[in-house]
User: What shape does this take?
Amino acid sequence: MTGPSAEEQGPERVRPRDRRRVRWPLLAVVVVLGLLLTLTTQLERAAPTGTGVAPVEGLAPPLLDTPVRCTRTDDARRLAELRAGLRPDGRLTSAIATACPRLLDGVDVVYVGEVVGDVLRRDGGAWVQVNDDPYALTVGPFGPHRQREGFSAGLAVWLPDGLHEGLGPPGRYGRRGDVVRVTGVLRRADPDDAGGLTVRADTLEVLASATTVDEPLHRPLVAAAGTAALVALAAWGWARGRARRRAR
Assistant: This one.
């Protein structure tokens, strides 16, 4: 008399020994991932927070304390009312310009910010990106510090020949570019910039020269990296010794 077939017996049950073989490696992976997450969080909190660059002082206040929004349907009377609330000696900001591009279209403005990215030379001048966010004017370039102050923000500026030749290296990670004061005309839809919002400069003054900011030594990160290297070396030595013993 034959016993039940394999199909009648149902799926083969996993033996307790096999379960233990799978359970402990999975548990080890979870523990390691948890430790790495905790270590990463602690290292981020322990990162140096010094700026390494002095904020730009003596700037005129913005034209408006709070940017106002407008639409294409706003008539000339509405725009005139908004212009009446502008500070006579205030400076333009990218937030004011982008919130209501029609507000100052074709108007002489003063704009202050940091030259970042690249200087794109063209016939008759050069295009530059000038940022006026806190990383440009207050806390310094991101990298040497960990202060988060929103997003980068700025405007494209056209500098005719005679204004861009003396600029230092543009700002980027770990370096603040020249902080400049530009006077010129705001263009809501500049045909030479594919209809972009730009400032056509007439004059340029460098308020703060370009400077490289050294990133402070992150000692906890160096210690963690050294410890991880030692642990990896010890694990490699253990695995290699075990392989040799098995080969005997």
Summary: The first helix runs from residue 6 to 9. DSSP finds six helices and seven strands in the chain.
